[in-house]
Amino acid sequence: MIVLHRGRIVAEAYPGMAPRDRHVWMSVAKTWGGLLAGRLQDAGRLDPTVDVTDILPEFARTAWRGVSLRDVLDMSTGLDLEETPAAVNDPTTPISRFFRAEFGEPDSEGALPTHNAVIAGVGRLEPPGVAARYSSVVSNLLGLVIERLTDRRIAAHMQDIWAAMGAERAATLCLSPQGQAGLHGLFSSTLRDLARFGLLHTPSWRVTSDLQVVSQAQLDRLWSTGRPDGYMKADLGPRIAQAFGEQPHHNAYQWDAVFADGDMFKGGMNGQGLYVSPRRDVVVAWFGINRDGIPMHPIARRLAQTFAS
Prior knowledge:
Elements: E1 2-5, E2 8-12, E3 23-24, H1 30-42, H2 52-55, H3 69-73, H4 85-89, H5 94-102, H6 115-120, H7 136-150, H8 154-164, E4 172-173, E5 187-189, H9 191-199, H10 216-224, H11 228-231, H12 236-244, E6 250-252, E7 255-258, E8 264-268, E9 272-277, E10 282-286, H13 297-305
Antiparallel strand pairs: 1-2, 1-10, 3-5, 4-5, 6-7, 7-8, 8-9, 9-10
Helix pairs in contact: 1-7
């Protein structure tokens, strides 16, 4: 784990790994999608009110019709793709079929559908915007949108930012058999470089970056455009509230939690986490290999709150 305050390391420890080792971010990587979407929004190239199918017309005859980019950014698509332990372990669910397709494995019927075919085949559960239903399918769909809007691969966008932020070491992005980016979690880096990524969301971004990657407008949207009414209606909100012992205000731009004080959190399977407090200028990041997760959530928030705003 590592703690930064005003861009300086104030705590760092590596039990079980070396500082220069790369470790998979798992779902912490979903924040890449929110960051890239926010930058496109700043540039006037992404309108969150536009339907997904206006950008990806090949999905026009699917349940994605009528789902806006804001619904995607907030994980409130209304589609039957929620990612819970029970759904992941059931080989017949859309989320389970998605993961199998992403790794080139046959589904429960022995077929080998493509990454995009599984996304296109997801059905409707409820109207868009009703509930925050967490899903890696949504994050990868966002990646397809970003690539289509820019005519550039996700890896190229990542490389631009990785270079600008002064990363110490190379990172790794995994692709599906068809070449789609594993934007939902298949990204690996050193812990310090994860912390640098978090630092981009704080006033101390200049400590490591040549470029203001995350604008104040991006942060303002992240803080203000979530849907608190739908946050606690499915698995995501209650799960995060239980982990923190406190209910966050909403989720937005692929972050799991945005608190009333502006702090943000994104977690990943098996104990990965990134906690950023822009107003206190604090970043807490951690890696783990515990299948049951690492109970760092309330510790990270308490650590951040020890520093004055």
